[in-house]
Amino acid sequence: MPDRILAARSVLRACRNALVLAPLFIILQAGAAGALPAYNVDTNQVSVSGLSSGAFMAVQLHVAYSATFKAGAGIVAGGPFFCAQGSVFTATGPCMAATAGNKPATAALVSITKRWARDGSIDDTANLAASKVYLYSGTRDSVVRPAVMNEARKYYRHFVNSAGIFYKHDVASEHAMVTDYYGGACAVKGSPYIDNCHFDLAGDMLRWIYGPLAARNDGALGGAFVQFRQSDFIADPTLHGMADNGWLYVPLNCADMQRCKLHVVLHGCHQDTSAIFDQFYRDTGYNKWADTNNIIMLYPQGGSGSLNNPDACWDWWGDDDPDYAKRSGRQMAAIKGMVDRITGAVPPFLCIASTASNYSHVMAGRAHDFFGFAYAVGSNQDMGLDNALIDTTLAQTLPGYYAIGNCP
C-alpha cells in the first residue's frame, strides 16, 4: 500500500507540473534571469557530477579542468574521458551499448589524456590523484550498459588513487537519477528519468566526495533558487547546445557569504527545463544535503538547438565543437566560466554599448570588413556598408563578442 500511495503521489505531482506549473514556470524562466552572483567558496572544495550525457560531461570537466574540480566527481551512467573520440557512432556503440567484444578503447583514451595534458590542452593529470570519484551503474541500465561504467573505473584507476574510487553497482535501477523519495518505479526507463529506488544516490555521492556530512534537510528548504543568464558565458547558447538560462541553489548560510563548497550538477538528455521543467534541479535530492552542509549547487542547462542534438544532451561526441573535451571546448569553457564567477575568480563582465559609424567600428576592432560591408566581431551580424555615413550601435556582451543593439 505505501508504494502505491507514493506512486500515486508521483503521478499527481507530474500532472500538476505539466498542467498547472508549466505556464508559470515558462513566465518565470523568461523574465527572472539575472547575472550569476559570486559567493565565498572554498576553491579546494569544488566538485562535479552528472547523469548520462551529463556524466560524460562531468568526466570531461573533471579531467580537463582537474585544477578546478579538485574535490572530485560523481559519474552516474557515463564512461571514460573522450570515449566517443569525436564520433556519434562510437558514442552510441561501444560508449553506450558496450559488449565484451565492443568496449570503449580505454587504453587509447588513457594515452590521449596524457598527451593532451603534456601539450596543455587539458590540466595536469597529477591533479587527479587525490580526487574522490564516485561511480554508479544501475544493474538494469539499458542505455549506458554497466560494461561502459566498468571501463570508466578502469580509466580512472590510471590517474586516481584506488582508495579514492568508489563503485556502486548493486541497485536494480534503470537509466535514471536515483532517489529515495521521488520519481518513477526503479525498473522504469522514461521521463523524467528520475526513479525512486529507495536509495539516496545524491547523498551517498556527496558523502564520498566530501566526507561526513550533517543530516540532510527533509523539510522545507531554507535557501533560494537563483536563475541566471548562461548567455554571459557562451555567445548564442541555443546555437551551441545550451539553454539561455541556468539555475543555482544557494543555502541561506552561503547567501550570507559564509565559506561554502560548490558542486556542479549536470542533467542527462531529455532532462532540461524545457522537457521536465524544474524536476531535475529540485527533485533529485542534492539540495536537501546542500541546505545543511553549506554546498552551493550549480545546475547548468543544456538545450536542443541542433538537428543532431534535439534532446538537450551535453556535447560529449563533438556535435557542436571538435574540441568539445578540451578546456577550449565551448560548453566546457562556459561551465568553467560559471564556476569562476561563483568563486569570484573572474568578476562579472560588464556589457558596453558603442554607437559609431560602421567605418569607426571596423577601425576600432569591433567589426570587420568583408567586400565593403561591415560585420560585427563575434556575432558576424551584417551591419551594412563599411563607411562613415551609416551609424550602428554594438553591444559587447562577452570578451571579443559584439552584437547589434544596446546592452540588455
Please tell me about this protein's structure.
It is a single chain. This protein is α/β, with parallel strands linked by helices. It folds into two domains: 35-343, no CATH class; 352-404, no CATH class. It is built from twelve helices and 17 strands. It has helices at residues 2-31, 53-64, 88-92, 106-119, 146-156, 201-210, 252-255, 273-276, 279-283, 286-293, 330-343, 358-364; strands spanning 41-51, 72-76, 132-136, 165-168, 177-179, 184-185, 194-196, 224-229, 245-250, 260-266, 295-299, 352-357, 367-370, 373-376, 382-385, 391-398, 401-404. The strands form four sheets. It has an eight-stranded mixed β-sheet, sandwiched between helices. The chain has a three-stranded parallel β-sheet with strand order 5-7-6. It has a three-stranded antiparallel β-sheet with strand order 12-16-17. Strand 13 (367-370) and strand 14 form a beta hairpin. The protein is globular, with a radius of gyration of 22 Å. The termini are far apart. Residues 1-30 have low confidence and may be disordered.
